[in-house]
Amino acid sequence: MDGYASHGGWINYVAVAPDCRKSGFGRRLMEEAESRLGALGCPKINLQIRSSNADVMEFYKSIGFSIDDVVNMGKRLDVDR
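and the corresponding structure tokens:
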């Protein structure tokens, strides 16, 4: 899922089944999302990754993403089950 709101785009909920990883699917999904957002004039793409998900962070670094010096905050309104 991707979206764009004039100052930046967001990519959320990208997943590749475990048995299909390392096959290029994630890279192709991201290329398509970047292409669509770029066509809308999006200047920057943002995404969020759990800090414990080192493998995913390495994947995004490998395709050009870097860690921003920001703090994301949230407040749960519904307790996880």
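(Above: one complete record from the training split.) The radius of gyration is 14 Å.
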